[in-house]
Fold this sequence. Notes:
Elements: E1 3-9, H1 13-24, E2 29-32, H2 41-44, H3 65-70, H4 80-93, E3 100-101, E4 106-112, E5 117-122, E6 133-141, E7 163-166, E8 181-185, H5 189-201, E9 204-209, E10 215-217, H6 225-233, H7 235-243, H8 263-276, H9 293-310, H10 314-320, E11 333-335, E12 347-351, E13 357-360, E14 364-367, E15 370-373, E16 376-379, H11 388-391, E17 394-396, H12 403-406, E18 425-427, H13 440-460, E19 463-468, H14 470-485, H15 515-527, E20 533-537
Parallel strand pairs: 1-2, 1-6, 2-3, 4-17, 6-18, 7-16, 8-9, 8-16, 9-12, 10-11
Antiparallel strand pairs: 4-5, 5-6, 13-14, 14-15, 19-20
Helix pairs in contact: 1-13, 9-10, 13-15
Amino acid sequence: MRELDAVVVGAGIAGLYMLHRLRGLGLSTVVYEAGDGVGGTWYWNRYPGARCDVESLEYSYSFSPELEQEWVWTEKFPAQPEILRYLEHVADRFDLRRDIRFQTRVTSARFDEGANRWLVTTAPGETGETGETVSARFCVMATGCLSVSKKPEVPGLERFRGTSYHTGHWPREGVDFTGLRVGVIGTGSSGIQSIPIIAEQAAHLTVFQRTPNFSFPAQNAPLDEETQRARKAVYPEHRQRARESGFGVPGEAGQTSALDADAEERRLVYQAGWERGSLVGILQCFNDLLVNEKANDTAAEFVRAKIREMVDDPETAAALSPAGHPIGTKRPCLDTGYYTTYNRDDVSLIDLRRSPIAEITETGVRTTGTDHELDSLVFATGFDAMTGALLAVDIRGRDDLSLRQKWAAGPRAYLGLGTAGFPNLFMITGPGSPSVLSNMMVSIEQHVEWIGDCLRYMRDHDLTSIEATPEAEDDWVRHVERIGSRTLYPKADSWYMGANVPGKPRVFMPYIGGVGTYRKTCEEVAAKHYTGFTFDRLSPHPDPRRRCP
C-alpha cells in the first residue's frame, strides 16, 4: 500500500491551493478528482449563462503577487469559461497536475487508529483503471459546498423521452435548444442565469417556479485596463480589507436603521445599492436588514416594486415577486435581463404554488390539470449544500463511527475545520464557517493557510495527530446557532437550512458572524497553541515549552 503524507479530495479552488501549500511544506500529497480536469464547480457547471456573482478582481487567488499581476480579466463578473481558464492557468503555472489523479472518485476514508493514519479508497476509473487504497497521515476534504446536485422530487423522471440536463452537470460540448420546446424547473441562481439565454434559442420556454427569488441586476460590463491597473496597484491593502470584512468583499455597510429614514430617503439609498451590481448592494444599505423583519420588509418591497416595473403582465410580476421569506435569507441572485425575459411571447411562467407538478410524463410535465409538451427539460434544482459532498464519501473515524451517523441530526464541527472523533481530518469551508455566506475565494484561502500553518506547527512540535475536542465542538456549534438565531436567516426554507433536501435536518449551517470576526477567532485559536484541539505526540520531547497543549 502506498503511503503518503496527505490526501486531498477535490481539485477545485480549494484543492489546488491546498496542494500548493502542502508541497511548500515538503509533504507528499495526492489529489483525487472525479472530473477529468481541474476547476471543481467551474468544471461541472457549464450551463448557459454560468457566471460568478462575485467580481473577478475579488474572486481570484491572493497567495501569489505575481499571479495577481499577470492575469487579466475581461469582465466585471467572470463567466464560467474564463474562470476555468484561470484555474487551468494556475494548475499549469504551479505545476500542480502531476500530483492530481483525474477521473478518480473517493468512495471511503477510514481512520486506522493503530497506525494513526487514514486509509483512503477510490472507485475504479471510468477509463478502466482499478481502484486503490492509499495510507495518509492527513486527509483534507476540498469537495466544495455546492457540488452534489439534486433533481426534483417528482415521479416519472425516468419516463421522459426527450433530452434532459442538470445545470450542475452540463455537457462540455454545450446544448443547442434552437427550435425546441424547453422546460426549466427551478429559479435559483442557475435558473435565473440560464433562462434568458435559453429563451433566446428555444421555440418556446416554459419555466416551472416553486419559489420566486430576489435577484438584482449584475450591471456586468467589460473591464478596462485602467480599472485593473488601479486595483492591482493596491491589491495588498484591498485584500486585507476583504479579509476583515463581513462577507469577504470590501464595502461600506450602512450605519443606521432602515426604519430611521423616511420613505424617500430609503428609496434613494436602495436605488444606489441596486445600481451597484452586487449581491450585498441592497443588504448593506442599512445596518438592520438581516436582523429586523420590519426593516427587511422595506428592502423587499423596493425590489418587488422593481419587478413590477420590469414585467409587463401584472399576474406574472406578482408570481415572480418573493413574499414568503425575508430578502437575503435565501441566497439572492445577480442577473442580466432575467425579469424582462418574461415579457417575451415565447416564454411562459408556471407558478407551482398554484399548480404543482404532478409528474413527469413521456412527453413533458404534468401540472394540476395541464400537460406541458416539451422536447427538453432542464433541472435547475440546486444542490445538497455544504454537507452533501462530505457525506457522499463513507468517512469513518475512531471506533468506526461514520460521519453520516455523527451528523444524523445535523453537522457538528469545530470552526468548520475539524470534527471530534476524526483525527487529522480537515474540511475546507465546512459547516460552521462563513463559507457560502462569503466570497468563497477569501474563505478558502483562509482555511488552506490555517491548515498549512497547523501542519507546520505539528511538525515543529513532533505531533502526529490533531483532533477537535467534543467540548470545543459543542461550544462552537452552540455559538453558530446562537448567532444565526439572532438573524432572519432561520425564517427561510433555504438550502442554508438544508430545507431543499427531503429528510435533511433543518440546521442553519454557515457562520453568519462575519468573515473578519471568524478569521480573528481562528487566529486566536492558533495563537493559543490550537485551543480546542488535542494532539498526539510522536515521542516525549525534553523541552517543556513544547508540551502538547
